[in-house]
Specification:
single chain; mainly alpha; 11 helices; about 0% strand; globular; [acyl-carrier-protein] phosphodiesterase activity
């Protein structure tokens, strides 16, 4: 799941350190894709600081939500449905893998629906990130083995200040985001014509799942352990 979908499960959580912990695995990967952190293997390193424990709890919840989501029938069915819908976007020269695009596309469309339906508050999301204890976050990352945190915090500052997730309210920006993600892996993944067609297909897909998209959020919420 993407940022806003993870935040959906914290929409009423006033612990800003847990909130940033919930999206921290994705923040780290976006900031430094070569970083692989495994804080749950060393829980004792965070026990002396309640803020770090909150961040760790958020990290653990992120992994559990992703585990449930990616093993769900909803994910399998909807990824395949979106894949079939977007296949006309590709030509024989396209380097992009349709399943990869459908996987990420599904997650971004869910974020889009949460936004336009008012199921999450983007201003609240950014406010929580701003309030999170940054010294505790730095100590958390160092305890995970990320000794040089300057790159991460530069990314985090830009992520918060840009308010980029507001752009998810428009479907053409979802296509743009998908293109940017693909550009990390492949050169010139889409032409302008293909991007326009991709937007049309994503809009049609959104309309098809809009009546029932909350079933996956309700399902995950019902499966989360009580400690969360």
């Amino acid at each position: 799941m993407n940022f806003l979908s993870h935040f959906y499960f914290e929409r009423d959580n006033h612990d800003e350190n847990m909130v940033i912990g919930v999206i921290l695995p994705d923040l780290v990967k976006n900031a430094q894709k070569e970083s692989n952190l495994y804080p749950l293997k060393e829980k004792h390193l965070f026990e002396a600081d309640k803020y770090q424990l909150s961040i760790l709890s958020g990290w653990e919840k992120h992994l559990e939500v992703d585990r449930i989501f990616h093993s769900s029938e909803f994910f399998k069915t909807q990824t395949n449905a979106l894949k079939q819908l977007i296949l006309p976007v590709f030509d024989e020269k396209s380097p992009v893998k349709p399943f990869f695009l459908a996987h990420i596309g599904l997650e971004l469309v869910l974020d889009h629906l949460l936004t336009v339906k008012g199921a999450v508050s983007i201003p609240t999301f950014y406010e929580q990130l701003t309030l999170a204890d940054k010294p505790a976050l730095a100590h958390f990352l160092k305890n995970c083995g990320l000794n040089n945190t300057s790159t991460f915090f530069s990314f985090l500052e830009q992520f918060i200040s840009s308010r980029y997730l507001f752009s998810y309210q428009k479907m053409e920006n979802i296509s743009y985001a998908l293109n940017r993600i693909c550009m990390r892996l492949w050169e010139n993944p889409f032409t302008e014509v293909q991007l326009s067609l991709l937007t049309e297909r994503l809009e049609a897909y959104k309309e098809s799942i809009e009546p029932d998209y909350m079933e996956i959020f309700n399902g995950i919420e019902g499966m989360l352990p009580p400690l969360f």
